[in-house]
Amino acid sequence: MPIIxxxxxxxxxxxxxxxxxxxNFMTYSRAILRDVDERNHPTDTRNVFSVDGHNFFYYxxxxxxxxxxxxxxxQSNVAYAMLxxxxxxFLAKYGQKGKTAIAYAMxxxxxxxxxxxxxxxxxxxxxxxxxVRDQVKRVKNQMLDNLHQIMERxxxxxxxxxxxxxxxxxxxxxxxxxxxxxxxxxxKNLKATLVLVFLVAVLMWLVSSWxxxxxxxKCNAANVKKEVxxxxxxxxxxxxxxxxxx
Length: 246
Prior knowledge:
about 250 residues; Beta-Lactamase; five-stranded antiparallel sheet
């Protein structure tokens, strides 16, 4: 059945409970009762805990806690409607006795829990607005719980501000480091370019030295003219037309 488990308790004392299933949900329910009791909710408060794929809906009223565990897709408004009727029937049957009764003193109410679970298993209330409101309230309560836990751990507002400032300082340090790295890589690229230019110049010098000699004597104007004249003389000897260079 979608509604798997239900109970009525005062603080952490279970007065009655009913289930046809098996599992560790009873252990979860005791932890939830302890948490609800420590929060000291005002009367007429309802909320939900999500545990291991199930939702524990609870409703507090006049010192008593009414709980039911459902599948996670079970409609919250149906669950709260069941808890409200459970409260009405329990008070009609026992009045104020639940405020002083010992654990499991109202065991006879188990049959009423079973009947209510069967009744609301087949109830389908398709009210989108109610579902949205419940979801918003659930998120709000979760945020409040998270804030409450932060405060309990001693993580005060000033500590949060200090951590925020540290994060900002770390971000500035990271940015400065990035700029320094950028400059380092720029200088490395410049040095590599200069080395490449130097190597090209050396290579050109070696090639020109090999062609013209290390003192470039083979490539000056006088030697070039002398070479041309010698070529012209050789050409004249073999009766070839040749014109000396000016």
